[in-house]
Amino acid sequence: MVSRATVFRIQKVVALVGYCLARPFARVRPVSWLVGVHELASMVIQLGQALPGSVTIVEKPHAFYGATYDVVIERGSGRWNSVRNFLLGPWMFGSIAARARGVIYVGERGFLHAADDEREWEFRFLRSRGRHAVVVFTGNDIRSPELMTRFAEETGFDNIGAILKRQGAPFDTEVYETVRRRRANICDRHASAIFTAPIDQLSYLTSSTLPFPYLYPDANFAGDQRKFDELEEIRIVHAPSNPALKGTAVVRTTMERITEEFSNVTYIELTDVDNETVRKTLADAHIVLNQFHAYMPGVFGIEAMAHRCVMVCSADPSVEPALEGADGAWVIASPDTLHESLSSLLKDPTALARQADRGYLWAREYASESGR
């Protein structure tokens, strides 16, 4: 059995060889950015589509998105596939980085996945060769449950990090916090740019950061407003990827009351379905109940607004500085105010289309592939 340290040394050699062999072709076959390597909420493919000339590489495709990537590293099991899986990532990292401005990392993983150094070797490799390391954090990859719990105690709002810490190991362990401290420290020292949500993903980062980059594909914006012409049936959708973190228990309790009080309301809950099914459902939905322990709307919230739905969630632009120009784009509701907020919407159904328009226009300007 080859040790992890030995595999890491081999991967470093493979990356260096790949870089040296590809460097002479940098001007002949240039690449804008290498984007990878762990797909989360379709961010790798969205960044790839928004950056002409980029190359997208993932360990494995996301189960719910039918996206096509330039390179998929892991394919099957067995001895030869294992060798391929260990060597292809470093090879592609070195050979593509030689022709690119740099690497955009989505999440916490690197291309040399035998490493246990929080990508420090990769970052140093890039910087020493005049390349950029850009990091896009998406949630628990940088979020500190300890810091989030303190913030929850200060504000009285039960946020995602506090919920995670109450769930126990690994989220309540010192090892978990130590990893996030080290990850933040390495990014502070070596990353050319860091994208995050400073409140929703409260962390140990100390350097200046950029707002989380929602880049929802232009082609997926559905501007049909006709679903609001006839409101004999009002369809309300909730699609929790993690019920405990999204506030699904509160949503279900609230919707039991709402469907009793408003006979024309239909509640639809989507779980474990592919993105195509989600988008088809959103096309006909009027209201979307998103997440109620977060300070950001998330990709599903952007999808909802892009499909001209009235989006309801706990994200608050007055709290989260990453939400530029978002005042009025959605209906802000906490677990305690969700019933009241929904009731107000349903008592004035003629206003739904106008609210949906506000969300659609904000998403188009601030959260689309071609937006800001």
> Which stretches are poorly predicted, pLDDT < 50 over at least 5 residues?
none
Number of beta strands: 12
Q: Overall mean pLDDT score?
A: 94
* Quaternary organization: single chain
Please identify the structural class as seen in this structure: alpha/beta
Basic shape: globular
Outline the fold blueprint.
Blueprint: H1 4-22, E1 33-37, H2 43-50, E2 55-58, E3 71-72, H3 79-97, E4 102-106, H4 120-128, E5 132-136, H5 145-155, H6 160-167, H7 174-190, E6 193-196, E7 210-211, E8 234-238, H8 243-246, H9 248-261, E9 265-269, H10 275-284, E10 287-289, H11 298-306, E11 310-313, E12 331-332, H12 338-347, H13 352-366
Parallel strand pairs: 1-2, 1-4, 2-3, 4-5, 5-6, 6-7, 8-9, 8-10, 10-11, 11-12
Helix pairs in contact: 1-3, 5-6, 9-12
Please give a quick description of this structure.
With 372 residues, the protein is an alpha/beta fold.
